[in-house]
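Troubleshooting: if your tokenizer reports a length mismatch, compare against these two reference records.
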Amino acid sequence: QVQLEESGGGLVQTGESLRLSCAASDSVDAMGWYRQAPGGEREFVAGISYSGAKKFYADSVKGRFTISRDNAERTVSLQMETLKPEDTAVYYCNAGGNTGSYYYPLDTWGRGIQVIVSS
């Protein structure tokens, strides 16, 4: 089974930026990011097709977060700008699939990485 490992989390202040990366042990199709805030459910953040031509974002991050991937390196990244305290969560990398309209997760997840945005 493919292994996913996140990196790049940490503590930042409101308005700052952070870049998350996820490395896959083997080639995967679509990839995505989810997050889970304390006491909350895991929610979709962003997804990207294998070619990178299709990108999907949650409304809450649209215009602030950018997902990208490097298939040669088997990595997917999430550039997060203008961070807000409500972005505080554990962020999870996922290997999934996509249609023309949406990303869907499959049951391959990274361990997660903490992002804390202080006010």
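Reference record two:
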Amino acid sequence: QVQLVESGGGLVQPGGSLRLSCAASGSIFSLNVMGWYRQAPGKQRELVAVITSGGSTNYADSVKGRFTLSRDNAKRAVYLQMNSLKPEDTAVYYCHLVFQGPQKWYDYWGQGTQVTVSS
């Protein structure tokens, strides 16, 4: 059973920084994509950033230049460094993992971690 365990959310003032971590356990194919999505109250879940096992990244326009996503394949973990945080970054952040198995695609979600940006 694959599990994603997140950590690092919290309350921060505008302009501050936070680092989110997500570690995967279980049977995972080495070729995969991991990343973060977020959902604010009353809004749909949206992509924040994703990274392939080869290190290619994709960011939402709203976070480019402020957030950096990295991964450690040996630890099966991804890290989202969030700088220059804005109130509009407030949301529940979800870690996501997707990979293709022999016969189908698999995708998994973490339980979510709250990020609140407020003075």
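Descriptive notes for reference record two:
- The CA atoms of residues 67 and 78 lie 13 Å apart.
- The chain has a mean pLDDT of 95.
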